[in-house]
Specification:
The protein is α/β, with parallel strands linked by helices and about 425 residues long. It contains 13 helices and 16 strands.
């Protein structure tokens, strides 16, 4: 590990500079911080094996047996990470691979600990790697009878790896069980092999990596294939980097320096978030294990600059409400929102239209089937509120769509019974 004197100078100077240039008072900025929990089964990953070896005193023969050693080793640093985040009033989106959920479920005390985190504003989310990732967690919907065009690339590896544990429903069951234990729901994830492996419950997906352009962006809405999804980009502030040959850099000094540079970039951009944009940051739980000072500096920076970040679920629930208070963005988004969301069974849909005309407001299920028409008539310019009662509908994801006079915009809402 690095000596203390090597860790201080750069960030001390940067924090002083940002303070002098008056970056304070940024509480209205929309920011999320997501933490990825890896499965820890990639025995070729030198840093995963190093972490386990440091704890056990010897390198494990294999992590492929899913003995949850990696999760046990990381847990104390995860507890420390959340405690430090709480001390700076930072809210984390904790994206668990099913292995970490399985590990937590084995201990009532750990379940209670995670419950306290969620009650304090952190979020339980999902992280998943498909078979095309080096740290595949053992779950996939491939090879279940449906043919995919690139199956041939992974079939031999899949059949001979010994890593397979089940399909995505079996994977999601661990997270769903944990969510049930803490009276929560899971709607956010970072998932590779998205079109094949994404559980239907996930409606907020994150994407991105080391490209600086991923730090600040407007959310994108897409259909995969029929379910509406909201994609949020994020930038990695990590302590694991690769060289020009795509080989993992194992030198701690180099990794720490690069993480400092990434963190400095985040700090320098805090004033450049537009009203309709979100700053997204991601790192791994084992990054915090290796270099906790990097992420403590991140938490401290946001706290000192009064940047009140939220979990992704809470951020997206509130984002349209926040947008409605800004006249410039209002004209772009037409101020459509519903509250509460999730709801059971009543919610109110609020919208604003710039021109008088004939409009329709309809509700659709996740298959794109219309289930109710709330409005189909001429409406005046201005703000409108429509109450919706879903007493005859089952739990799930629904879409409400406003159309007419050049407007065609859809939003999602969740009915939870």
């Amino acid at each position: 590990m690095l000596k203390t004197k090597q860790k201080i100078c750069y960030f001390t100077l940067l924090l002083i500079f940002l303070t002098i240039t008056n970056v304070f008072g940024q509480g209205d900025k929309k920011v999320f911080i997501m933490v990825h929990f890896e499965a820890g089964r990639d025995t070729t990953h030198p840093l995963i094996n190093e972490i386990v070896s440091d704890e056990l005193g010897y390198p494990p023969d294999s992590l492929t047996t899913n003995n949850l050693i990696f999760q046990r080793v990381l847990w104390p640093s995860v507890v420390d990470m959340v405690q430090i985040a709480d001390s700076f009033n930072i809210k984390l989106t904790l994206a668990l691979q099913s292995q970490m959920a399985e590990y937590i479920l084995r201990d009532t005390n750990k379940i209670n600990t995670f419950n306290s985190w969620v009650q304090n504003g952190h979020e339980l989310a999902m992280h998943h790697h498909g078979v095309n990732h080096v740290d595949w967690g053992g779950y996939t919907n491939r090879f279940q009878g449906v043919q995919y065009s690139d199956d041939y690339m992974w079939l031999d590896q899949f059949q001979n790896s010994g890593l397979y544990r089940g399909n995505m429903q079996q994977s999601f069951n661990y997270l769903q069980q944990l969510a049930t234990e803490i009276n929560d729901s899971i709607v956010t994830g970072c998932i590779t092999d998205t079109q094949i492996d994404k559980p239907s419950e996930i409606i907020y997906l994150t994407k991105g990596g080391e490209e600086q352009a991923d730090l600040i962006a407007s959310p994108d809405t897409v259909l995969i294939p029929n379910n509406p999804l909201c994609f949020l980009s994020h930038f990695q502030v990590v302590s694991v980097f690769k060289d020009s040959n795509k080989k993992i850099i194992e030198d701690d000094n180099i990794n720490h320096q690069k993480a400092e540079e990434a963190l400095g970039y985040v700090m320098s951009k805090i004033n450049q978030i537009d009203d309709d944009e979100i700053m997204g940051i991601v790192f791994h739980a084992f990054d915090y294990y290796r270099f906790p000072d990097i992420y403590r500096d991140l938490f401290s920076f946001f706290n000192q600059n009064q940047v009140y970040n939220k979990s992704i679920k809470r951020l997206m629930d509130n984002s349209i409400t926040d947008i409605s208070n800004n006249s410039k963005v209002a004209s772009k988004f037409f101020l459509m929102q519903n509250y509460p969301n999730p709801f059971n069974p009543n919610t109110t849909i609020n919208f604003s239209i710039p021109h008088e005309g004939i409009y329709s407001l309809k509700i659709y299920n996740s298959l794109g089937e219309e289930v109710e028409t709330l409005i189909s008539q001429e409406i005046s310019r201005g703000n409108h509120s429509i109450k919706f009662n879903a007493k005859n509908l089952s739990s799930g994801l629904y879409i409400y769509r406003l159309a007419g006079n050049g407007i065609n915009i859809s939003k999602k809402m969740i009915l939870l019974r």
